[in-house]
């Protein structure tokens, strides 16, 4: 399969999986229950934060957090009582993301919205930056502030430590991509989607290797950049759309690679 054939194959899979029907079984369904920009940001960020493991479990955990915040998460963030939030410390949320972590995240989000109208301001790229490596680190520094040693820091990965930062990249894809297909929100207007990367996880990583898009064995930030290089050649204006193809194949079409035409 040459470059043109591979590109055509991936475009076909993007069209198949980048569809509103994708929402029904994906954690993105949780922020889709809201319409206010800040509500979508808050619920999207928290949902992405717990997006590891089984998708049903992720959806259940994200639903648990939204039930605590109620119908107006933004209003909840701005006006919650510290005493009430601290009562969450003993509550189980999602695997290693505990009630204490959730409490810390709520306080951090309140600090963000006391200074900014939108979380977008914390992810703006600077001149000559071509991906979100430095922007994510700046976000982490603001989010944790003086609490850089807090136990919750493990829940926001750092590209500086060579993490693929899959969950943050997924959140950024949700917020930034504009294609009118109904899955991604595209509610941020100051950041060009051409700078997005595919959220690299075990599924997208394995399929990318099967298709010889990448050679590195680890799912880390260096591999994210390796994948960027070829996907941006396929579509320099919207490289992250190929996440739908790679993830969709990885979840639904693993047997595809048992066919002779896909043995490289």
Strand order of the largest sheet: 1-2
Main pleated sheet: 2 strands, antiparallel
What is the N-to-C order of secondary-structure elements (H for helix, E for strand)?
A: HHHHHEEHHHHHH
Proportion of strand residues: under 5%
Shape: globular
- Helical residue percent? 40-55%
Q: Let me know the number of strands.
A: 2
Can you offer a commentary on this structure?
The protein has 11 helices and 2 strands; from the N terminus they run H-H-H-H-H-E-E-H-H-H-H-H-H. By secondary structure, it is an all-alpha fold. It has a two-stranded antiparallel sheet. The radius of gyration is 18 Å and the shape is globular.
Write the layout of secondary structure elements.
Elements: H1 3-17, H2 37-49, H3 55-69, H4 73-79, H5 82-86, E1 92-94, E2 97-98, H6 99-115, H7 133-144, H8 166-176, H9 202-210, H10 221-234, H11 242-252
Antiparallel strand pairs: 1-2
Features:
264 residues; two-stranded antiparallel ribbon
